[in-house]
Each structure stands twice: as structure tokens, then as C-alpha cells.
């Protein structure tokens, strides 16, 4: 599966002021299973536009969801979730940041799940952690087959 997204972000760079950033990115997404574990790989190329600067960044993301006490992530089933995402600044060919996450989730129905966990983000000069609450809605574009 491939996709391209246009994304407008305003983010805090230094505590005293905001910097406007506009991103355009292309990505390749691949999903597979190893046993009961669901893996997702994503490779993303970002073009980053600032008021007086242009940046180019690559990102590699890998995640795994492991069902607990069931064979899949469905309504009422809990699961463990983990991911790692590496960011590399291509303009200067150097490390930008890394995100490492571990959490616990529950399936609400076949399309929706909620999870919470802790993410550690290591950047050039700072490492910080944060709690995350994640809501995932996989829109069911595939035609559902009737069960007999």
C-alpha cells in the first residue's frame, strides 16, 4: 500500500515562539504477520518547508501488535503494542530523532481500537518521555463477505 499526504503543522521549536512548518510526504506501507503478531513497516520521505528554510527527512517505522489470550485483535480483545521510528535528516545526512513506544490496547470492534502507552523520544540534544493515548480507526473500504 502506498500513499501521499499533505500536512500542515505548527509546532513549538523553542519555548518562546512558534515556527510554521508545512510538510509534504510520500510513504510506502507494508503489513505482514509472523505467527499471531501483526507487523507494520513504513518508509516515509518528507519535504519540510519552513518560512526561510527547506528540509528533507527520511523516516523508518516498524510496529508490532501481539494479541493477548486470543488469536486476533477484535472486539474486547487486548493486545500489546510496540513501535520504533528512526528519523534521518537527509539534507545534512545525520540522525534527527528516534521514537520508541510500548503500550497496551483493546479492540472496540473490527475497525476501531484504543491503546495507551509510553513513548521515549531521543533527539540530538534531548531525550524525553510522554504518555500516549491512541485511537485507531481502520475504515472498512473492503466489501464485507457474508458469513454463512
Task: Walk me through what this model shows.
The chain has 148 residues and is an all-beta fold. It has one domain (21-137). Helix content is 0%, strand content 74%. The chain is built from no helices and eight strands. The chain has an eight-stranded antiparallel β-sheet, with no helix packed on it. Strand 7 and strand 8 form a beta hairpin.
User: Could you tell me how far the N terminus lies from the C terminus, measured between alpha carbons in angstroms?
Assistant: 30 Å
Low-pLDDT regions: 6-15
Count of separate structural domains:
1
- Tell me about the largest β-sheet: 8 strands, antiparallel
Percent in helix: under 10%
Going across the major beta sheet, what is the strand order?
1-2-3-4-5-6-7-8
Judged by helices, strands and strand pairing, the structural class is mainly beta
Total of helices: 0
Beta content comes to over 45%
- Choose one word for the global shape: globular
Oligomeric category:
single chain
Secondary-structure element sequence? EEEEEEEE
Number of DSSP strand runs: 8
Summary, kept brief:
The protein is mainly β and 148 residues long. The chain contains no helices and eight strands.
Could you list some keywords that capture this structure?
globular; mainly beta; 148 residues; 8-stranded antiparallel β-sheet
Q: Which helices and strands, and how do they pair?
A:
Elements (H helix, E strand, L loop, with lengths): L1 E13 L2 E18 L2 E14 L2 E16 L9 E12 L4 E14 L4 E12 L3 E11 L11
Antiparallel strand pairs: 1-2, 2-3, 3-4, 4-5, 5-6, 6-7, 7-8
Amino acid at each position: 500500500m502506498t500513499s501521499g499526504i499533505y500536512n500542515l503543522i505548527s509546532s513549538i521549536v523553542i519555548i518562546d515562539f512558534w515556527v510554521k512548518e508545512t510538510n509534504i510526504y510520500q510513504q510506502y506501507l507494508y503489513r505482514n504477520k509472523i505467527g499471531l503478531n501483526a507487523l507494520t513497516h513504513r518508509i516515509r520521505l518528507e519535504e519540510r518547508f519552513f518560512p526561510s528554510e527547506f528540509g528533507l527527512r527520511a523516516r523508518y517505522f516498524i510496529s508490532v501488535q501481539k494479541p493477548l489470550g486470543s488469536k486476533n485483535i477484535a472486539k474486547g480483545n487486548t493486545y500489546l503494542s510496540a513501535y520504533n521510528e528512526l528519523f534521518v535528516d537527509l539534507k545534512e545526512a545525520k540522525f534527527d530523532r528516534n521514537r520508541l513506544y510500548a503500550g497496551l490496547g483493546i479492540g472496540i470492534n473490527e475497525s476501531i481500537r484504543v491503546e495507551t502507552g509510553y513513548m521515549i523520544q531521543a533527539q540530538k540534544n534531548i531525550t524525553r518521555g510522554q504518555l500516549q493515548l491512541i485511537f485507531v480507526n481502520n475504515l472498512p473500504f473492503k466489501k464485507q463477505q457474508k458469513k454463512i
